[in-house]
């Protein structure tokens, strides 16, 4: 069982809203009131000196939330103006009701660019309630112009008076399943065509688009309002470890697992992986180059040459070998020979780098031997070699998410797929066809704050940490999710100047930090969530 924060796709969010309403526990109007009131509370708290607000309301329920925020800001004493894309009587029922409640307090202007250029009303706050989870296509016409206008507010018509933009649920125009902006054509000169808020206030839980692709850059800070929905069965998580799951129970070295790291002629990358596997607590780690190599520190890393698949099969008769890592520095020729023997042994395994590239010509050859205790760890280039159609779709279809691509890849290959990058996603095979919005079990990890991780060999260390955890008998999804967090946290603790060689040696500090922070009860708050 993974600990972490839940993330709901937009379809899952709609499903739990509908279920709550169908059960009679709550009405749509109640949910909208809680959403808007909660958002207004956060806004008032974070912008205590704001005196004026301009609320931009779209045609759906996101616009309804906007009316609720407008009402609460008005009651708190702010001078509030409201612009709406359509009149309340044309809006969905709950939004219409909220629009009529606002009309008892103030007028509604047509939402055009003129509203944004009223020199008589320079707002301290602009509340973006144009589109939320219901966005289905790129905004066009006047609304597209209004959204683009929000991006000019900083340098805009109000001179030095730059309002703070706050978006409800998401910056309008961002797809909350993918983190891609849905815009027609390319943004001009790198300028955004959708709002760039300081703060995004979402409801009940994060959505994938807050974490994937460009989402975090668009969203700014993200706050979540509890709207009293329960019983969600979210299976996407932003995972973070509990010390309990990493603590070493009493035992001897073999009870903590023996891991093999297959190496090529140059064993440098494999050494990085091996050192990481040792540091995360595998009982023994053996480096297996094709020929004997001179011993090098760390001495704790054993070596045992393995030259042929038959020799590997022979070594794997030892049941105490629990996990194998293949890929870092392996060479594609050797990988092609060895990987089938690894997979036939049915041992838990990590396939990375050359172990993936070796099968670019015929990925099915790899997939037909696959089993669910294998974790594949491609970066986007390697992913494209094994799943070219999915990689192309990711580039061309703004509504296809990295999460859906990883899940499609997991289903096709039969392995757990960890697709790397600043937004790393992990998906397990479900055996079920996936649609963009229906993910089964997955983890998202965002690591924008550690760009130093993008350094040669960092992926080898990640493969080694996963292998060490598999040797310690963690389940593949848990091993992968823990490893991604530990890896990023190691980089975070080291800071600028990091090279891959530094990462394994930061693991003890990461573990100590985890142990210390969780000896008190405030576990979740003590840990970075990314
Ligand atoms: N359903 C509920 O009870 C709740 C909904 N909430 C809010 O409701 C939002 C979702 O509401 P909706 O499903 O109405 O969706 P939105 O308010 O995001 O907008 C959808 C509306 O815009 C139209 N539309 C979509 N793309 C368009 C485009 N490119 N150009 C012009 N019109 C376009 C749709 O046809 C629809 O009328 C959430 O994001 C959240 O803010 C919250 O109040 C929580 C409770
Ligand atoms: N911009 C970034 N910010 C944070 N982490 C990143 C970024 N780019 C890559 N990473 C992470 O760094 C590691 C790089 O791995 P990989 O691309 O396999 O490199 P190598 O093959 O050189 O080891 C991965 O864990 C990846 O998720
Ligand atoms: K919005």
TrEMBL record:
Domain of life: Bacteria
Keywords, ordered alphabetically: ATP-binding, Isomerase, Lyase, Metal-binding, Multifunctional enzyme, NAD, NADP, Nucleotide-binding, Potassium
Molecular function (Gene Ontology), one example: ADP-dependent NAD(P)H-hydrate dehydratase activity
Amino-acid positions noted as binding AMP in the UniProt annotation, renumbered to this chain: 420-424, 459
Domain YjeF C-terminal intervals: 236-514
EC number(s) per entry: 4.2.1.136, 5.1.99.6
Annotated YjeF N-terminal domain residues: 13-235
Cofactor: K(+); Mg(2+)
Binding site for (6S)-NADPHX: 61-65, 132-138, 169, 269, 329, 379, 460
Keyword Metal-binding: yes
Binding positions (K(+)): 62, 128, 172
Cofactor details (free text): Binds 1 potassium ion per subunit.
UniProt-listed Pfam families: Carb_kinase, YjeF_N
Coiled-coil annotated residue ranges, if any: none
Gene Ontology annotations of biological process type: metabolite repair; nicotinamide nucleotide metabolic process
Stored SUPFAM superfamilies: Ribokinase-like, YjeF N-terminal domain-like
Catalytic reactions on record: (6R)-NADPHX = (6S)-NADPHX; (6R)-NADHX = (6S)-NADHX; (6S)-NADPHX + ADP = AMP + phosphate + NADPH + H(+); (6S)-NADHX + ADP = AMP + phosphate + NADH + H(+)
The keyword NADP is annotated on this UniProt entry: yes
Summary of the function given for this chain in its UniProt record: Catalyzes the epimerization of the S- and R-forms of NAD(P)HX, a damaged form of NAD(P)H that is a result of enzymatic or heat-dependent hydration. This is a prerequisite for the S-specific NAD(P)H-hydrate dehydratase to allow the repair of both epimers of NAD(P)HX. Catalyzes the dehydration of the S-form of NAD(P)HX at the expense of ADP, which is converted to AMP. Together with NAD(P)HX epimerase, which catalyzes the epimerization of the S- and R-forms, the enzyme allows the repair of both epimers of NAD(P)HX, a damaged form of NAD(P)H that is a result of enzymatic or heat-dependent hydration.
The family this protein is said to belong to: Belongs to the NnrD/CARKD family.
Complexes and interactors: Homotetramer.
Cited NCBIfam families: yjeF_cterm, yjeF_nterm
Descriptive protein name: Bifunctional NAD(P)H-hydrate repair enzyme
Lineage: Bacteria, Pseudomonadati, Pseudomonadota, Alphaproteobacteria, Rhodobacterales
């Amino acid at each position: 069982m993974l600990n972490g924060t839940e993330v709901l796709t937009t379809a899952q969010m709609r499903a739990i809203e509908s279920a709550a309403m169908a059960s009679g526990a709550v009405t749509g109007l109640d949910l909208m009131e809680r959403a808007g009131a909660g958002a207004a509370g956060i806004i008032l708290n974070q912008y205590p000196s704001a005196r004026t607000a301009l609320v931009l309301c779209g045609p759906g329920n996101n616009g309804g939330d906007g009316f609720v925020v407008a009402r609460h800001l008005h009651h708190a004493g702010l001078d509030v103006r409201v612009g709406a894309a359509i009149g309340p009587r044309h809006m969905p029922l709950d939004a219409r009701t909220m629009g009529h409640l606002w009309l008892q307090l103030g007028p509604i202007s047509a939402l055009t660019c003129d509203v944004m250029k009223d020199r008589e009303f320079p707002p301290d706050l602009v509340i973006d309630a144009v589109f939320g989870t219901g966005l289905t296509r790129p905004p066009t016409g006047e609304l597209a112009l209004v959204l683009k206008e929000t991006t000019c507010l900083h340098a805009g018509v109000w001179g030095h008076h730059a309002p703070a933009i706050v978006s409800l649920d998401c910056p309008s125009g961002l797809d909350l399943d993918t983190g891609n902006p849905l815009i027609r054509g390319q943004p001009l000169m790198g300028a955004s065509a959708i709002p760039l808020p300081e703060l995004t206030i979402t409801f009940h839980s994060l959505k994938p688009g807050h974490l994937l692709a460009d989402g975090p850059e668009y969203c700014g800070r993200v706050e979540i309002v509890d709207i009293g929905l329960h019983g969600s069965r979210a299976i996407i998580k932003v995972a973070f470890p509990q010390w309990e799951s990493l603590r070493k129970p009493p035992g001897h070295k073999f009870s903590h697992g023996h891991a093999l790291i297959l190496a090529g002629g140059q064993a440098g990358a494999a050494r990085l992986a091996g050192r990481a596997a040792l540091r995360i607590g595998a009982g023994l780690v053996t480096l297996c180059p094709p020929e004997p190599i001179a011993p090098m520190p760390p001495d704790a890393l054993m070596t045992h040459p393995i030259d042929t698949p038959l020799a590997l099969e022979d070594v794997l008769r030892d049941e105490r070998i629990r996990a194998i890592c293949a890929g870092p520095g392996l060479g594609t020729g050797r990988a092609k020979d060895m990987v089938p023997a690894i997979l036939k042994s049915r041992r838990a395994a990590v396939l990375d780098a050359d172990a993936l590239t070796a099968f670019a010509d015929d990925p099915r050859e790899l997939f037909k031997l696959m089993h669910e205790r294998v974790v594949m760890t491609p970066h986007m280039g390697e992913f494209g070699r094994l799943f070219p159609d999915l990689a192309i779709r990711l580039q061309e279809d703004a509504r296809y998410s990295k999460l859906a691509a990883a899940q499609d890849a997991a289903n096709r290959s039969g392995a757990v797929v960890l697709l790397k990058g600043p937004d790393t996603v992990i998906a397990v095979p479900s055996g079920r066809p996936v649609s963009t919005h229906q993910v089964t079990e997955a983890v998202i990890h965002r690591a924008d704050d550690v760009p130093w991780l993008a350094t040669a060999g960092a992926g080898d260390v990640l493969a080694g940490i996963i292998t060490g955890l598999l040797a310690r008998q963690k389940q593949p999804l848990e091993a992968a999710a823990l490893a991604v967090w530990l890896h990023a946290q190691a980089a975070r603790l080291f800071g600028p100047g990091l090279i891959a060689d530094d990462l394994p040696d930061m693991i003890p500090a990461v573990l100590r930090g985890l142990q210390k922070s969780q000896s008190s009860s405030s576990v979740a708050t003590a840990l970075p969530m990314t």
